[in-house]
Specification:
By secondary structure, the protein is of the alpha/beta class. It contains seven helices and six strands; from the N terminus they run E-H-E-H-H-E-E-H-H-E-H-E-H. The chain has one domain: Flavin prenyltransferase-like (Rossmann fold). Strands 3-2-1-4-5-6 form a six-stranded parallel β-sheet, with helices on both faces. The N and C termini lie far apart (about 60 Å).
Length: about 210
């Protein structure tokens, strides 16, 4: 039988807080063998510097290793292959997504590669995941999220569940990333799925202290 082609995912990182989600998701996509087309906005690069200490951006600096499965595209290059609907992909995710970028995507703007690729993803009927890391949300933000949802996007606020009894910050990040991977149909081993029974309680003195 012929070998299935690896998934191709477009991945945008913008200037909303939550760089750790973007780095972990990129790591998991690469580990799963996905071909990732990465676009980082100027404010996204500032975010990575502020939150992850990446002063000089590169894929290797963000991922922690070199990879030939990740292509870094220039933010303003709206002539890149992924700007065309004829370039077949398996979907797109913007993580984290600023409210500015969410507004631009909701308005159908295409003056940068993240917004252009998002518009292409929607018009071709492919999955678009939008991960807005902001709270509280104004009515403007809610209307923009609704417009995107009505156009076919999936709005995914990075809200970790606590029913799996997370113990660390990494557990919380992995819960969110695992949900995103499920929506992209990319396999993972994270402990994110409810099975009908709660996990075993933490030993006394472990986990968060109660008053």
């Amino acid at each position: 039988m012929p070998t299935a082609s690896p998934k191709q995912i477009v991945f945008g990182i913008t200037g909303a807080s939550g760089a750790v989600y973007g780095r972990r998701l990129l790591d998991c996509l690469e580990t799963a063998g996905t071909i990732t087309h990465l676009i980082v906005s100027p404010n996204g690069r500032r975010l990575l510097a502020d939150e992850l200490g990446i002063k000089t951006f590169s894929v290797e600096a963000l991922l922690g290793r070199a990879s030939d499965r990740i292509t870094l595209h220039t933010y303003n290059n709206i002539g890149a292959p992924i700007a065309s609907g004829s370039f077949r992909t398996d979907g797109m995710v913007v993580c984290p997504c600023s409210t500015h970028t969410m507004a631009a995507m909701a308005a159908g703007l295409g003056d940068n590669l993240i917004c252009r690729a998002a518009a292409v993803t929607l018009k071709e009927g492919r999955r678009l995941l939008v991960v807005p890391r902001e709270m509280p949300l104004t009515q403007i933000d809610l209307h923009n999220a609704l417009r995107l949802s009505q156009a076919g996007a999936t709005i995914c606020p990075p809200s970790p569940g606590f029913y799996m009894l997370p113990r660390t910050l990494d557990d919380l990040v992995d819960f969110v990333v695992g949900k995103l991977l499920d929506l992209l149909d990319v396999p993972h081993q994270f402990n994110t799925r409810w099975t009908g029974a709660p996990p075993q309680p933490l030993p006394p003195g472990d986990g968060a202290k109660t008053r």
